[in-house]
């Protein structure tokens, strides 16, 4: 009897270790998985020396969303995994922006350059210097951090901050969707990136549901999956032969 009980305890310990390992692996995927889709786009830009197919406003959306998410964490401390995910995503977007600036400046023909100090709204987020983007992010982050510090005890402010963060993140694919629509083409956009978006967004939506994360995160994940599907539809739509459409 004692042996059977001992064996049962051992098996229970093994199952506990297995679940702990799976939980750790899931957390690692959540932290690094969001950045993986951009590896494909990074290589494509590096290979073609062309950024036309990639909307840098995707970087804007993710930078703003993840800065707000980090500030939200100070008011409502959710899983550290999601906090680390935001840090990794911010670093990834800065790397993407740096590459885009480098490639665009190499291909730039006009001697006229655009900088944040020009204060021209029509060239917002289309600046030539990487430092211009850093200045904007600093100018955005400092007032938001100060407001969060002042209103940290207000549950209304904290919850609103959370909704704003995930609402912004939910719009991740929208700049790419609009650019594809405007160009009537998905040429230059990495389809692998969008497929990985789809896989990652589906995974994290399930993660949010299982971990009982704040409702804001679940709504964000569902919205992103729908936008990913719309972009994949564009890939099918614009890759078809025009004659086939008439048939």
UniProtKB/TrEMBL annotation:
Keywords: Membrane, Repeat, Transmembrane, Transmembrane helix. InterPro entries: PQ-loop_rpt, SLC66/Scramblase_ANY1. The chain crosses the membrane at residues 24-42, 54-74, 80-100, 133-152, 158-178. GO terms for biological process: phospholipid translocation; retrograde transport, endosome to Golgi. SMART domains: CTNS. The keyword Transmembrane applies. One of its GO terms (cellular component) is membrane. It is a multi-pass membrane protein. Its main location: membrane. This is Solute carrier family 66 member 2. It comes from Oncorhynchus mykiss (Rainbow trout).
